[in-house]
């Protein structure tokens, strides 16, 4: 499959190069040249298909012949090696739980799939060592560390802000060792991100190391997120009502993958972009004006994004036709008070415990269902509530149980290097 840059459509790339580079040379995001329509046979006997079969059919066109069938199937097997259950909460509301992966975050799927593809290309093309350099405010780092752990040819360097990630998140970043190095930056997330940007522009580093990033702009992290929607549909297809999905959104990679799945023929009627107070997309849907801003810190901090990078992909999917987009996508936003109240209300009503991100998704769905009849709604739970222990326990006024994987991880010893300046990062990368 060919990909083009959303800045200059004459700039083309194959899948391998798009995965290795992340961004096009003109700094545009890559977008597939064609959207594969699924044949009717894909939906025959859909109920009895395995998640691996479904995922292979969905993704194969976007990889093309660049990874042989057997290898691609192997990558998918490793990627989807856990459950994606839909749990019905009330008559018109279900939740799709995406937190059953190794770091209890939905980002596990994208990180594992990208690691598999990159590992394959390194081996096949003798690319030598590649360094994956990422800045994290929490969940990305853990998923990337876990997904790339022990992949041959890859070294991972993660920058995180000292004292600004939760204890569980820090353990996920710092206890693996081997090919994973955690650098604890004396600063905030923006400082980490700035250092990563400088390193990508630094020729001295480029001469010594081949660097790549692993954020959601990479097609190998973005595209496999389509799997969630197909696997959810398999569990919801007996519903008589139309289906609507509410997606807690930050950089809009996840929801954009859902919209792509719909474009390929998945019968989902409508999508809801659920935001915290960082709501540039909700405002765009009302005013047709896209006005990025600085991000504001909230309880659902993985969605504290002021300039969502995947938004341009959504516009491209709808050929920049505002009316078409408005028919398929609704936006809502909620503040921290509403988020905490929703966690409390849901727990009281059903006993179900939501994390702050899922709670924003639930609120978006609730608002939509109030205004629209004939739908069954599903919101996405993008992280396990235990990752946001303080917020969740304060809201429900009860202790929640810590899963066994986390309990054992909490006993592991933290290994990290502290750095203060870009010069220290550079010295580390050159050493
Ligand atoms: C990353 C993340 C999001 C936002 O996903 P996008 O694809 O960036 O919109 C939502 N919830 C959690 C828990 C996350 O880690």
Automatic annotation (TrEMBL):
Keyword Amino-acid biosynthesis: yes
Pathway(s) this gene product operates in, as recorded in its UniProt entry: Amino-acid biosynthesis; L-threonine biosynthesis; L-threonine from L-aspartate: step 5/5
Catalytic activity entry: O-phospho-L-homoserine + H2O = L-threonine + phosphate
Keywords annotated in UniProt: Amino-acid biosynthesis, Lyase, Pyridoxal phosphate, Threonine biosynthesis
Entry GO MF terms: pyridoxal phosphate binding; threonine synthase activity
Required co-factors: pyridoxal 5'-phosphate
EC annotation from Swiss-Prot or TrEMBL: 4.2.3.1
Domain of life: Bacteria
Domain Threonine synthase N-terminal: 2-79
A Gene Ontology biological process term: threonine biosynthetic process
Modified residues (N6-(pyridoxal phosphate)lysine): 107
Tryptophan synthase beta chain-like PALP domain: residues covered: 97-365
Gene3D superfamilies: 3.40.50.1100, Threonine synthase, N-terminal domain
PANTHER family to which the protein is assigned, alphabetical: THREONINE SYNTHASE FAMILY MEMBER, THREONINE SYNTHASE-LIKE 2
Protein family membership: Belongs to the threonine synthase family.
The protein's name in its UniProt record: Threonine synthase
Native species: Gillisia limnaea (strain DSM 15749 / LMG 21470 / R-8282)
């Amino acid at each position: 499959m060919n990909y083009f840059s959303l800045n200059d459509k004459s700039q083309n790339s194959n899948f391998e190069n798009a995965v290795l580079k992340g961004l096009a040379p003109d700094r545009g995001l890559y977008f597939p040249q064609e959207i594969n329509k699924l044949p009717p046979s894909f939906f025959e006997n859909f109920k009895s298909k395995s998640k691996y079969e479904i995922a292979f059919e969905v993704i194969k066109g976007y990889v093309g012949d660049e990874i042989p069938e057997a290898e691609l199937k192997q990558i998918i097997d490793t990627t989807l090696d856990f459950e994606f259950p839909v749990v019905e909460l009330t008559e018109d509301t279900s939740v799709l739980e995406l937190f059953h992966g190794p770091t209890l975050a939905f980002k596990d799927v994208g990180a594992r799939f990208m690691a598999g593809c990159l590992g394959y290309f390194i081996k096949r093309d003798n690319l030598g060592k590649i360094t994956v350099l990422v800045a994290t405010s929490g969940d990305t780092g853990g998923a990337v560390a876990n997904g790339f752990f022990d992949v041959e040819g890859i070294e991972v360097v993660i920058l995180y802000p000292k004292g600004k990630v939760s204890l569980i998140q820090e353990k996920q970043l710092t206890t693996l060792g081997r090919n994973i190095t955690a650098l604890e930056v004396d600063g905030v997330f923006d400082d980490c991100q700035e250092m990563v940007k400088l390193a990508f522009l630094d020729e001295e580093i480029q001469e010594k190391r081949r660097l790549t990033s692993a954020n959601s702009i990479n097609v190998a992290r973005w595209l496999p997120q389509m799997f969630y929607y197909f696997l959810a549909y398999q569990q919801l297809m007996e519903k008589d009502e139309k289906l609507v999905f509410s997606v807690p959104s930050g950089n809009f990679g996840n929801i954009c993958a859902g919209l792509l799945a719909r474009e390929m023929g998945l019968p989902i009627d409508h999508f809801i972009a659920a935001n915290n107070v960082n709501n540039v997309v909700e405002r765009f849907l009302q005013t047709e004006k896209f006005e990025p801003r600085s991000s504001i810190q909230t309880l659902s901090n993985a969605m504290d994004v002021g300039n969502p990078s995947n938004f341009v992909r959504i516009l491209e999917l709808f050929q920049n036709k505002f009316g078409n987009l408005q028919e398929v996508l609704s936006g809502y936003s909620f503040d921290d008070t509403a988020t905490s109240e929703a966690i409390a209300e849901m727990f009281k009503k059903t006993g179900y415990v939501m994390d702050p991100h899922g709670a924003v998704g639930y609120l978006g769905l609730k608002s939509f269902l109030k205004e629209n009849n004939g739908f069954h709604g599903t919101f996405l739970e993008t992280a396990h509530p235990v990752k946001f222990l303080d917020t969740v326990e304060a809201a429900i006024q009860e202790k929640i149980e810590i899963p066994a994987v986390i309990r054992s991880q909490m006993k592991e010893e933290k290994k990290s290097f502290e750095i203060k300046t870009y010069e220290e990062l550079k010295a580390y990368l050159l050493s």
